[in-house]
Structures are given as C-alpha cells and as structure tokens.
Design goal:
Number of helices: 3
Number of strands: 32
Structural class: mainly beta
Shape: elongated
Distance between the termini: 50 Å
C-alpha cells in the first residue's frame, strides 16, 4: 500500500465513550495564542509544545478531519489526531499517523517526556503530557480523538491493555526530531573551602544537596561536562593547572591539565555542543585560552585589563558561551565575544563583591549577579540588568557558585 493510500486510511475513531474514558476537568482561563518562540519546522522546547497543545484545549477545537484550525500564530493545522500533534510540534505541515515517523525517532515508552507522542500508525496518535506516577504507569496525554469531544487532556496507564481505545502494544513512542529540553534555571550555591564541600541551593532557598570534592586550596568550578543538561561540580588545582571534573554523583569523571599553575580557571560551552569545556585566563597578560572538548586550544586572545576577573556566559542565547570580565575597580561587567570584542557593559554591585554568572530565569540567556562576602548576600539581575532577586545563603568564608542542578 502506498504512502498516499495509507494517509487516506488515517482515522481517529470514536471509541472514547465506549472505552469508558473521560476528559479531565479543565480550569477556565482566557485562551492565549500558542507560544511562537519557535519557527515553523524549527527547534522547539518541550514547554512550548505543551503550551501549544493547551491552546487547542482552551479553544475547544472540535474533531474534524476535513477542518483546519489556527495555532494562534498564523498557521492552520488539520483538526484530527495527527494534525493536532503536528500543531503542537509546530511542524511544517499537518502530518498523518503514517508520516509522523518521518520527522521523529522511536524511543522506549519508559523514556517518554512531555511533548513526545504515542503513535499507532493504522489509527491514532496522542501527545504525551507527562508521568503522574511513573512507577504505577499513570500518565496524562492530550488528543483530538472524538467528534463529540473537543481537544482534551486525559489520564491513562501505560500498563493497561488499551490506551484511547486501542491496544497499548500497538503504539510506538516517538520523539520529534526538533524537540529540545527546556533550559533549567540556574540557582546559586556556595563552596566551603574549610571542608571542600559544595552546597547546592534551589530557587526557594533550600539546600538541595551537598558534595565533598577536591582538596584544600583548590578552586571550585561548575559545568555540564557530559551534556546531559545538569551542571555538576569540579575543582581546579592551582599548583599543577589540573582540572578535576565530576560525574553527576560527585565522583571524579576526568582530570585534564590545561594552562599553567596560578592561571585562573574558566568553564564554558565554547562551540555550542551542549558540553562545557575548560579554559584558563592569564592575569598577567590578560589572555584567555579556551579548550576544545579534547582539551586542545580552541582559541586564545587578549581581553580586559590588569586586575580583571575572567567570566563566561551565553549573552545572546545562541547556545555558545563567550567571555567577559568583571572589573572590581568600578564594579562593571564587560561582556565579550570569542574574538575579544566587547559586546556591552553593565555596572552591577559594589567593588570587592564577587561576580557570578547564571541563567536565573531559564530563558537561555545568562545574566550577571554578585555576592557580598561580608553578609553572604546574593543579588541576581534580570536580562535588563535590574535586580531580579536577592537573598542570604551560606556562611562567612564561602565561595559563591551557580548552576542548573
């Protein structure tokens, strides 16, 4: 049977009522257009996929294989199960259950995340909303699947013999090729030199966990060294120029020598591959040395003046970190690119406070922060440089750190 013929077989039949499933209650809210942070057919975050899915729920879009409905951002999609998933994914067209695999990859059902799909090519597809209790197998999903019920959110169990009226065994879990995980917001924490322990803080001021790593006199580092989206701890030995980077469980993952003793360490994703690499700054020459993933030199250039503190961050949200310096003499951050050019500058904090960089709101753009050692007070900025939050955390003598734990 040809792909064209197969697409005509597509149907999302009205088995919902007979299967005894009911749509979950919806909170009444004013419907807002689906988020348009992505471009059609481009990279899209899981949170945007779910926001787009909720838009049709709020709009009470009816099931109609011959009808089309807007995504709220100027594109129309077919009002059936596969058209709905195509809309949520912000795909280039309304795919069918047969053609959705052309823009997605099969994954295990146990690894599904919000925004993935369960697809039965002969009949039906649903959008996975997330696990309610993974151990028990319960999850939520969104679907266009009944002419008598508008687009809705449902609850099901992956261990049941059927889901949405069709045998569970016939569904394959799909992950859209252009979906990306949401950026985790960074949170502040501290490193306590007295016991070589990292203390990670959440957004509410609670300590999430602690890990002892390193030796006295070593300098703390934070980075996502394996590209899994979670920052972990690391240390730099000034006496040897060795970086010691940890796994997610705090054990040593790798040790690399880069730079010379007494150079200042730096960590950043210089090439946008999702994995942080090491770097070093020669304070005498004000020269940055940035490494490839294999710890060879990727770039080197002079930036700043004597007395500056080296920093790294993603200033424009392109997925690549660039360099910066903090000038204690005037409490000013100077953001640079990977060629040594200044992109902008901002005064934030007071002289002798310790600078900090992080993506405090999870929008993919790093902003500045400062730490006052005398009071253990963190002050973090919005993207426009105004104060976003301030709080006290840690003990005298602690060194501030930031990461997406």
């Amino acid at each position: 049977m040809s792909r064209t013929t197969r697409s005509k077989v597509l149907r999302c039949t009205s088995t919902l009522i007979s299967a005894g499933l009911a749509a979950t209650a919806l909170t009444t809210v004013a419907a807002a257009p689906a988020q348009a942070a992505s471009s059609k057919g481009g990279k899209i975050s899981r949170s945007e996929v779910m926001a787009r899915a909720q838009y049709w729920v709020d709009q009470a879009v009816p099931y109609n294989q011959s009808g089309y409905h807007t995504d709220g951002s100027g594109t129309n999609y077919r009002e059936d199960c596969s058209g709905y998933v195509s809309m949520a994914w912000h795909a280039t067209q309304s795919y069918t259950t047969w053609t959705l695999p052309d823009v997605s990859s099969e994954i295990s059902k146990s690894s599904m995340l919000p925004g993935d799909a369960l697809n039965y090519t002969e009949q039906h597809v649903i959008l996975f909303g997330g696990w309610k209790d993974k151990a028990a197998g319960t999850f939520t999903y969104y679907a266009e699947q009944n002419s008598k019920v508008p687009t809705s959110k449902y609850t099901a169990n992956i261990n049941s013999s059927s889901v949405a009226g069709w045998p569970t065994s016939l569904y394959k879990a799909l992950r859209y090729d252009n979906i990306v995980d949401d950026t985790k917001p960074a949170n502040a924490g501290v490193y306590r030199p007295s016991d070589q322990t990292f203390y990670e803080r959440d957004g509410s001021g609670n300590t999430l966990g602690s890990a002892m790593f390193g030796n006295p006199g070593w300098k703390p580092l934070i980075g996502d060294f394996n590209g899994d989206g979670k920052d972990t701890v690391g240390v730099y030995d000034p006496s040897t120029g060795d970086f010691h980077l940890s796994n997610d469980n705090g054990s040593a993952a790798v040790s690399v020598r880069f730079g010379n003793p007494n150079w200042m360490p730096l960590v950043g994703d210089w090439n946008g591959d999702g994995k942080d690499s090491v770097g070093a700054y020669d304070p005498v020459a004000q020269k940055f040395y940035l490494s490839n993933d294999n710890s060879s030199v990727a770039a080197s250039f002079v930036y700043g003046v004597a007395g500056d503190v080296p920093l790294a961050g993603d200033w424009d949200g392109d997925g690549k970190d660039a360099i910066a310096v903090y000038r204690p003499s005037n409490a000013t951050f100077y953001e640079g690119d990977l060629s040594g050019n200044t992109l902008g500058n901002a005064m934030f904090g007071n002289p002798n406070w310790t600078p900090l960089i992080g993506d405090w709101n999870g929008d993919g753009v790093d902003t500045i922060g400062v730490y006052e050692p005398a009071t253990q007070k963190f002050s973090l900025s919005n993207d426009n440089g105004s104060v976003a939050s301030s709080f006290v955390y840690g003990n005298p003598g602690d060194v501030p750190i930031a990461g997406a734990w």
